[in-house]
Structure formats: C-alpha cells, structure tokens
Amino acid sequence: ALRWEDVDLANGLIRVERAYDEKARVEVVPKSRAGRRTVPIVGALRDELTAHKARQGRSAGLVFGSTAETPIVSSNVWRRAQVAWKRAGLDPIGLHEARHTFASVLIAAGVNAKAITTYMGHASIQTTYDLYGKLMPGSEAEATALADAYLSRSDTRSRLKQLRDG
User: Fold this and answer.
1) Closest Cα to residue 53, out of 83, 14, 87?
2) Which of 44, 51, 117, 153 would give a disulfide with 128, using CB separation of 3.0 to 4.6 Å?
3) CA gap 91, 112 in Å, rounded
4) How far, in Å, CA of 105 to CA of 97, rounded?
5) What are phi and psi of 41, to 5 degrees?
6) Where does residue 30 rank: exposed (0-12), middle (13-18), buried (19+ CB within 10 A)?
7) Are 13 and 38 in contact (CB under 8 A)?
8) pTM above 0.85, yes or no
9) pLDDT tens-digit readout, 105-139
C-alpha cells in the first residue's frame, strides 16, 4: 500500500502509513501505533525507486501497482521476483526474510537498537532484542573499554565527585 506521497526521495525516507489486506482487498492502518513509522531509504534503493518512478510516469498513487489505484496481486510479485532472482543468480527469499535481512544489515552497519526498533515497527525495544539480540555486537572487553573511556572523561569525573560528596 506504499504510495508515492509517502516516499521522500530527496531526503531518503519512506513513511509507512498503511498496509494492504489482500483478502479484503482494502488498505488498512498498520496493526499497531509502532507500525506507522519512517524508514530510511538506502542509496541503492533510492536509485531504483527514482528510476521506477520515471518509468511509471506518475508522482501519485501506488508505488507498486497495476495502476495508480490497483495493487499488484502478490502471486504476480512472486513470479516477477523469481525471474529477477534467477537472472541475478540469487536464491529466492520471501518478504519475511527480506525484513530479517534489512534488520541484520542495520545491525552489522552499527545502527543503534532504538532506531532499528523504530524502523522495524516494533512496539518495544525488547522485541528487537529478542529477535535480533544474538546478532548485535558486544563483549565484556568492549563493554569495559566503553565504560572506562566514559569514566575517564573529565566531566564524568566531576559529576561522580559531586554525587560522592553529596
């Protein structure tokens, strides 16, 4: 249910405002408040969306639709994707796997967990940790180094002294 008015190519953002219920064949609001969100567009996708918009020749309506107001049937999307994957020499994945891949790439790139929670539409950061925590970097040595660096800063030392001296 992504519409061009929700795609900000200039600033590299997509606003998720609605979903599509294929059985009922209607646009619906996301399942939760967290489901309405703004997601960054990576450069390669921005280039593809820009080219897609130029090919479509319209600046309003559905980004991926048979027409500006008619969504593409999911089986047609799957068929087209199969051809593209085969042409690229890739194994096919579904939308769920694509979501996990997006989250994994964000984690590997060092994006903070709160931002990932927002981008994924999770209501709680705990959900993000439960699903992706095993992928998040961190070790005792890294935690110690970060804590030592923080505690050795002069502003931190003076604040700790104030707390200690009351």
Assistant:
1) 14
2) 117
3) 29
4) 12
5) -105, 120
6) middle
7) yes
8) no
9) 998 888 999 999 999 999 999 999 999 888 887 76
